[in-house]
Amino acid sequence: MAITRANGTNINGHVKRVERSANFLGDDEWSTETADLKLAAEGPGTYVKLTWNDVKSIAVKPSPATVDNMSCTYSSDYNPWMYECTIKTPSTVNTKDGKSLTVDSGHKWKFVLDDDTEIEFWLKKHIAWEQDSEEVTLSTTNPENPALYGKLQQRLKAEAKGDLVVKIEIQ
């Protein structure tokens, strides 16, 4: 397996384990269950769930990490609130049988190599998230935290030029 990052660095190695996040943020649990490790992909008139053994390569094409191309939201389901900014990373999977499909998997993925190196990545959108440091109360005048949005946007810009996975080739 060969991975190329946005900054041009390459990682080569043998993948001993594939994991998928339990949620879209990739912040909680990781699954190695066979049913969870299928990669959803679509094309004209088709929607399939591929195993990683079906994959020849994946090209990740991140949207430019500009404020205009980022989507930022907060969730008041958390206390303090959780903030999230994303950029789309449309990905094309080429299968070993010659198909070219669009990846439709929003979960975070992890490859663990033989030397225990862990490589984490998203294939549909790349997320930066952080929980606010202050709780919102009934007396809070302006509950949204624009500074935290700015911090997350800067993180996305840096990651889009840095360690964002842009290509995966499986031998």
Structure description:
23% of the residues are buried. The protein starts with a strand and ends with a strand. The strands form 3 sheets. An 8-stranded antiparallel beta sheet has the order 2-1-15-7-10-11-5-6, with no helix packed on it. A 4-stranded antiparallel beta sheet has the order 4-3-12-13, with no helix packed on it. By secondary structure, the protein is mostly beta strands. It has one helix at residues 146-161; strands at 2-5, 10-12, 15-21, 30-31, 39-43, 46-50, 55-60, 70-75, 82-88, 91-95, 100-103, 108-113, 118-122, 125-131, 165-169. It is built from 1 helix and 15 strands, in the order ββββββββββββββαβ. The protein has one domain (2-169). A hairpin with a 2-residue loop joins β5 (39-43) and β6.
Outline of the structure:
The protein is mainly β. The protein has one domain.
Overall domain count: 1
* Helix content range: under 10%
Average pLDDT over all residues: 93
Strand content: over 45%
Number of helices: 1
Distance between the termini: 6 Å
